[in-house]
Amino acid sequence: MDGLLDPITTSGEFILARNLCSLFFVVLHFALVFWTYRDADRRGAMGWFWALAVLLFPVAGIIVYLVARPPEFLADARERDLEIRAKEVSLQRDLTTCPSCHKPVEKEFLLCPYCMKKLRKPCIECGNPLRLNWGVCPYCKTKQ
Ligand SMILES: [Zn+2]
Ligand SMILES: [Zn+2]
Is the Cβ–Cβ distance between 91 and 81 less than 8 Å? Predict the structure, then answer.
């Protein structure tokens, strides 16, 4: 039985196909190592460490990496942080708290809607909301 497959396994086409297959896997392996390095780097993980792990343990390395890698790209995380900070700043700019009941009120409010405390006065000329202690309107320069 041993010699039965010999004509196939020793034929030129078989050896060529086998070599092409191994070449394909070698290329695939290096592509995976390169992909892992770049992906880990973009996620802020140690790129060279994961690339080495995938290089030494192609299957186990890539599985462990896919499980253990940080869930998001560094750039995405940075963008999200910036968005949150921008939102906080805009909230701080538009919102303040009522000095009497400490509930959130908008800076343009003339009156606290919760406790009716007078927060601002309208300009006698242009109607813009002014702080109670302002003697002149900064919008139209009218003395109050
Ligand atoms: Zn209030
Ligand atoms: Zn005014």
Answer: no
Domain boundaries of the chain, sorted by first residue: 2-71, 75-118
Radius of gyration of the chain (CA): 35
Report which bound ligand comes closest to the CA of 105.
1
- Give me the mean pLDDT over the 67-83 stretch: 89
Q: What is the pTM of this model?
A: 0.51
Taking only the tens place, the pLDDT of each residue in 95-107 is 788 999 999 898 8
Distance, CA 107 to ligand 1 centroid (Å)? 13
Q: Is 133 helix (H, G, I), strand (E, B) or coil?
A: coil
Closest ligand to Cα 101: 1
How many angstroms does the Cα of residue 132 sit away from the middle of ligand 1?
A: 15
